[in-house]
Every structure is written in C-alpha cells, then in structure tokens.
Amino acid sequence: MKRLLVPAALIALSACQQPAPADGAAVVQTSGAICRPTPNGRQATGCYLTLTASRNDTLLSVESPVGALAQIHSSNLENNMMIMYEMKAGLPLPAGQAVSLAPGGNHIMLLGVKEPLVTGDTVPLTLTFAAARPMEIAVPVGQPPLPGAGADHAGH
User: Fold this and answer.
1) How confident is the model at residue 8 (pLDDT cuts 50, 70, 90)?
2) pLDDT above 90 (res 153)
C-alpha cells in the first residue's frame, strides 16, 4: 500500500505549481507550458501555457532572464491581418476557469532574447499576479502541440 501512496502523493504535489497559502489567498496552477525556439536571427518568441486561478485574479506581468522584456499579448484579426497588442492591464483569470495562452491567441512574448533558444532548453519565467503570490516556473523550449497554430511575432 505504501508503494502506491508515494507515487500518488508525488503526482498530486506536481499538479500544484503553487502551495496553498495558510492565509486563504488566491492560488494559480499552470499546465502545458512551452516556449517556441527562436528562429535564426530572431530575438523574439512566444510562450504558451494554461492558468487556472482559485479566485478571480489577473496575470499582471512576466519576467525572464533570457530576454530583455516579457509582455502579455493578445492577438486579434483585423483587416485579414493578425495584430498583436500588449495587454497592459494584464490577463484576467476568472475563478476556476482554465485560461489558455496559445498560438494565435493570448500569449507571452519574450523580446530581446539574449541567446538563441533551441528545443530542449528551459526558460525560467516569473509570473506576477494581482492576488496570488509570484510564481517561478521552468518552461521547456519546443513546438506547441496545437493544431492550426496561428501567427506569433517569432514566425513559424
């Protein structure tokens, strides 16, 4: 029986990216995080993940030491062109609802990438929220496994 409990406990702990605070503050969980490799000569790329907040919250900002700047972007189709905008007020996270950042939609844009990112690398991201505590995650570099991926600033 103990053999089953240890793996089950490890799986349960790995599902929660942020420990539940004793003060009852908001908690955000992440899943499916991935950053695209940087194409030759480019210093920008997109990162994608799914966020689920225990209470209404907002992703306010993102930081990473691999780039000069990280921004939360929205993608909108305007006049048959995909246009990206920085979400200066942040990304709303309704309580209990999974919010996906994905190619062709909302995403994290890394700008001024210092060294080329290649498949197999890991990108450290610090996510800052309005209510939940800041979260540090390690994001693998690779191609997002999403069919029909839309445009992002880094190209395809």
Assistant:
1) very low
2) no
Cross-strand bridge partners of residue 140: 122
Give the pLDDT of residue 76: 82
User: Given CA atoms 26, 133, 74, 149 in this order, what sign does their dihedral have?
Assistant: negative
What are the beta bridge partners of residue 109? 46, 71
Distance of alpha carbon 3 from alpha carbon 6, whole angstroms: 6
* Residue pair 133/93 in contact by the 8 Å Cβ criterion: no
Q: What share of the chain is helix, strand, coil (3-state, %, to 5)?
A: 10, 45, 45
Q: Running DSSP on this structure, what letter comes out for residue 39?
A: P
Extended strands (E) in the chain = 28-35, 44-53, 57-63, 69-78, 81-86, 91-93, 98-101, 107-111, 122-129, 135-140
**Tens of pLDDT, residues 123-149:** 999 999 999 999 999 999 999 975 444
Distance (Å, whole) CA 19 – CA 26: 10
